[in-house]
Design goal:
306 residues; alpha/beta; Elongation Factor Tu (Ef-tu), domain 3; 2 domains; six-stranded parallel beta sheet; six-stranded antiparallel barrel; 10 helices
Length: 306
């Protein structure tokens, strides 16, 4: 996939099949759009072009930015779009000045720099200042300018519409299995392994504590989870705790993982934890022995799920 870090870097291609959006999560609804794009590109011997924005518009506009969290980091979002088989990704630097573009001005920019043959959008897509641009406006512009517009209808899981908002709410409630069903893959956290207090080692369940660099990365709810871990390209099974370790120290929020059948020092290395399902709430035990006994049960439960 070719990446352009501003729209001026993009070299127009023949029969561009285009979509536009923020694509937080790159979930089943987004991938339905990508699949329709690839279908259209194959029909017209064209190339697929995804246009997105960075930073996220809500950060730049200060809309609830204190509480704003995203399912994927920018790096992970790019990786997932590439994995979806897209040919070109155009990342428009989002600024307050850019936000002032009307829908007509934004469309003129797309027409001039991208030259679409087809624009594919989701069922609830809006664009331009105050989100005034709509499917109807795109259809009208397409008739004048000679491009087609296709709207992909909502995708459903268990009769519920797939959306980034619903996925974020699932994760905030610790419902990672439900979030994964909407995502079409396992929600994950990538971070650098940092030195902790070696409490897990003393308990017989050594853990890797990870530090997440992106302040806007959404961390799932406090609790104990069955998970998979990727380190140096190799997969492992494990169980992860997101929380405050109330039996031990009531400290800051930590993300730690006990990797099964693993005995390496990996401080400073990067790992990815993929969350499969939530095993239980975090709780305070009356003593260390009770905590050890529960951790052994957690491991059995995790292995059954994995």
């Amino acid at each position: 996939m070719k990446i352009s870090n501003c729209i001026k870097e993009f070299t127009p291609v023949n029969n561009a099949v285009v979509t536009i959006g923020t694509f937080d999560g790159v979930h089943l609804g987004h991938r339905a759009i990508f699949d329709k794009m690839k279908e259209q590109a194959a029909e017209f011997d064209g190339e697929t072009v995804v246009i997105t924005f960075y930073p996220h518009p809500r950060i730049v506009l200060g809309l609830d930015s204190k509480h704003l969290k995203f399912i994927n980091t920018q790096e992970k979002k790019i990786n997932r779009i590439e994995d979806a088989g897209i040919d070109h990704l155009v990342i428009i630097p989002f600024t307050k000045e850019f936000a002032r573009l009307t829908s007509d001005e934004f469309m003129q920019l797309i027409l001039e720099k991208i030259r679409p043959k087809v624009i594919v959008i989701g069922h609830d897509h809006h664009f331009g200042k105050d989100r005034e641009g709509s499917f109807e406006l795109l259809k009208e512009t397409g008739k004048k300018e000679g491009f087609d517009v296709i709207r992909v209808e909502a995708q459903y899981v268990n009769d519920v519409t797939v959306s980034s908002t619903k996925i974020r709410k699932f994760l905030e409630a610790g419902k990672v299995a439900a979030a994964n069903a909407f995502l079409g893959y396992e929600y994950s956290i990538t971070g650098k392994v940092v030195k902790g207090q070696s409490i897990g080692h003393d308990l017989g369940f050594p853990t890797a504590n990870i530090e997440v660099a992106d302040e806007y990365k959404l961390i799932a709810a406090v609790g104990v989870y069955a998970c998979r871990v990727e380190y140096m390209g190799k997969p492992y099974k494990g169980m992860s705790n997101i929380g405050y370790r109330p039996t031990i120290d009531h400290g800051d929020l930590t993300i730690e993982v006990h990797i099964f059948e693993f005995d390496q020092q990996i401080y400073g290395e990067q790992i990815t934890i993929s969350f499969v399902d939530r095993l239980r709430d975090e709780k305070k035990f009356k003593n260390i022995d009770a905590l050890k006994a529960q951790l052994a049960k957690d491991k059995e439960a995790a292995l059954e799920l994995l």
